[in-house]
Amino acid sequence: MDKIIIEGGQTRLSGEVKIEGAKNAVLPLLAATILPTEGKTLLRNVPILSDVFTMNNVVRGLNIQVDFDQAKNEILVDARGPILDEAPYEYVSQMRASIVVLGPILARQGHAKVSMPGGCTIGSRPIDLHLKGLELMGAEIHQEGGDITAKADKLKGATIYMDFPSVGATQNLMMAATLADGVTVIENAAREPEIVDLAILLNKMGADVKGAGTETLTITGVKELHGAEHDVVQDRIEAGTFMVAAAMTSGNVLIKDAIWEHNRPLLAKLMEMGVKATEEKGGIRIQANRDQLKPVTVKTLPHPGFPTDMQAQFTALMAVVKGESTMIETVFENRFQHLEEMRRMGLHLEILRETALIHGGQQLQGAPVMSTDLRASAALILTGMVAEGKTVVSKLNHLDRGYYQFHEKLKALGAKIERVSEDSHG
Ligand code: EPZ
């Protein structure tokens, strides 16, 4: 496994950076390609990430043809033939997000078997809301031997009130409802831009999904779906990660093709601190003088609240802003592990359950650190840019799940950063 070495200090990022298609959009979009029984589906602007390879294998495991043309960032899916209804454990166990194939397989086949996704370092990641919604639509759900089996000759439209606006559960139920008998109403649904992107593809396939982006979705079932073409929406979290990188290095960076509307909660917080954010025709420009930035309080919430996927990266910015900032993580129960690593770099902080008090502005020192999840990896690399001396970030498998050429992009903006194999003496 590789590691990343960063020479910190006075890095000031400048230039422009290209953003990829969204990981958290393309994974459910790939699950949706299971639904059409005629025509093929072409996804464009697909990011080259390990999670995409994993989801491609999950879909291939259903006897569906998946061709990933990496040179063109396109995936062509042909799901017309008879498909299998069991998602292979070897791939599902690699990535929790695979659970969103359950709804599409069940809707198309009347039977589905998917292994229970394991938890992960940021939380237990239950799927009770997924299963409760499918049961309300008439599915018979059993859990045995680590697998979930679901049966329903024909799913029926139902009104489902989500205890929590779960992104994955909303996606699973939305897809299942497209082929159900009658109308399904999902209340207190997730409102993330990736939910909207999925609804757009489903409607292109001939589904009838209304209300995506609001807290109430109305899906009227149809007989069958056909293939479609779709451009994956830009990755708002990758864009946000580079916005934070620019701010914490007193930089001046144009994040190309970033969508202001998708990043409003983050941009509001950055501007509250004193970061200059301007919408240009080519994207969003971020400029800052970090010595003049003010500490803030942030609470992560489902969209349109501040995204939990930006929490770790934002704590890195809080670490360089003089004064006491507060980060409250309300979505996942164990998503502060990167802060323990930043403590090793000299960051003063206290963690009181879901609240982290960060005493920013101290000069941080480079150190060997370990990443525990995808966004923590990015946060530690950003912190290495502003710490004095050398920082070595290991366990990059997490990073590669969600960031394409992350260190190359930072290097092109001026960071002193290298990626070497684990056993080299970097
Ligand atoms: C999606 O995960 C994202 N992943 C996550 O991004 C993101 O952090 C999360 O949404 C929240 O925005 C993908 O889209 C592939 P949830 P998901 O269901 O769908 C609880 C990243 O870094 N919950 O909205 O799993 C759950 O425990 C990843 O890119 C239940 O209680 O998120 C958690 O506390 C990390 N029961 C909260 O809801 C359920 O049935 C949010 O989970 C489902 C969820």
Automatic annotation (TrEMBL):
* Compartments reported by the entry: Cytoplasm
GO molecular function annotations of the record: UDP-N-acetylglucosamine 1-carboxyvinyltransferase activity
User: Which SUPFAM superfamilies does the annotation name?
Assistant: EPT/RTPC-like
Q: Which residues carry this modification: 2-(S-cysteinyl)pyruvic acid O-phosphothioketal?
A: 120
> What's its top-level EC category?
transferase
Q: What is its EC number?
A: 2.5.1.7
Listed Pfam families: EPSP_synthase
Q: In which pathway does it act?
A: Cell wall biogenesis; peptidoglycan biosynthesis
Q: Name one GO biological process term.
A: peptidoglycan biosynthetic process
Cellular component (GO) terms are:
cytoplasm
Q: Which residues bind UDP-N-acetyl-alpha-D-glucosamine?
A: 96, 125-129, 309, 331
Residues engaged in binding phosphoenolpyruvate = 23-24
Superkingdom assignment: Bacteria
Q: Which reaction does it catalyse?
A: phosphoenolpyruvate + UDP-N-acetyl-alpha-D-glucosamine = UDP-N-acetyl-3-O-(1-carboxyvinyl)-alpha-D-glucosamine + phosphate
InterPro entries named among the record's database cross-references: Enolpyruvate_Tfrase_dom, Enolpyruvate_Tfrase_sf, MurA_subfamily, RNA3'P_cycl/enolpyr_Trfase_a/b, UDP_GlcNAc_COvinyl_MurA
PANTHER family xref list: UDP-N-ACETYLGLUCOSAMINE 1-CARBOXYVINYLTRANSFERASE
Q: Which NCBIfam families match?
A: murA (TIGR01072), PRK09369.1 (NF006873)
Q: Which family does it belong to?
A: Belongs to the EPSP synthase family. MurA subfamily.
The name on file for this protein is: UDP-N-acetylglucosamine 1-carboxyvinyltransferase
Q: Which organism is it from?
A: Streptococcus cuniculipharyngis
